[in-house]
Amino acid sequence: MPNRSLAVLGACATFxxxxxxxxxxxxxxxxxxxGGQAATxxxxxxxxxxxxxxxxxxxIGQFPPYKPARLPDGHPDLNGTWQSMVTAxxxxxxxxxxxxxxxxxxGVYGAGPAGQSIVEGGExxxxxxALAKKKKNFETRxxxxxxxxxxxxxxxxxxxxxxxxxVPRANYLPYPFRIVxxxxxxxxxxxxxxxxxxxxxxxxxxxxxEAPIPAWMGWSRGRWEGDTLVVDVTGFREETWxxxxxxxxxxxxxxxxxxxxxxxxxxxxxxxxEDPKVFTRPWKIHxxxxxxxxxDFQLLEFKCEPFTEEMLYGRFVKRxxx
Length: 322
Known about the structure:
Elements: H1 2-33, H2 43-49, H3 51-61, E1 80-84, H4 103-106, H5 128-139, E2 177-181, E3 189-194, E4 200-205, E5 219-225, E6 228-234, E7 254-263, E8 266-274, E9 283-291, H6 305-313
Parallel strand pairs: 4-5
Antiparallel strand pairs: 1-2, 1-9, 2-3, 3-4, 5-6, 6-7, 7-8, 8-9
Helix pairs in contact: 2-3
């Protein structure tokens, strides 16, 4: 009986110590982030990832120190199929759940989920006149009119019309994408293949070439900074949007992406967005990407053109008289 009492007391003491440790850990992590002297298990991550990505790792994932697998050229191996778990395709900023088009017919089909902002600081720094256009985009997001070449893209979310999504939107659509990476100077390219609309991007490593023409997915040039893949993207068409909330850009959009491996199963993604025609200053988004681990997982096709033909061109079709 005394032994049993001692065992109970020992278990209680252990439990109390564990609870105290859990309660103290956030405070210690906060002190470390503010420059204090408290040591935390997350501090080595900062040295590995750099100030920006490491802070996101602390805030979002609290990843332990990680040395990624490498290809023969010494760079991290990013090969795999990845997907985000954010709701930014609906709205980059904080948003409530919302009904979809024609809820009186479709019910919850097409309804949008609530979600948290992936924008650093929470707000997109629009110029006043650009913010007015963003609001108009949202109001007309489900409208189309392709009767005039000059106003072809004036109405409707490009995603609804099955146009290529652009960057960075392609990375947070609710569809997976595959990174294909080779090794060595003989093949200085990387490929990103997206399930949505079968969109693709070629990343030209260490290239100085400028975009020959504007493109929906832009012109991507890559380089390594330590274990982080940095992709500089220019040469955009102005028609792509950032989300279904009407957030948009001009033809002067410039995006710098950062892909940092922080575990065998996660990449930290960050994009710095600059467009002096639309925004008052550069701004950032960031979120984790998750590796698909299902057995025999494949990137499938989502060729959406047939789903949009009637909506876009139905009124121009000559139909037989009833």
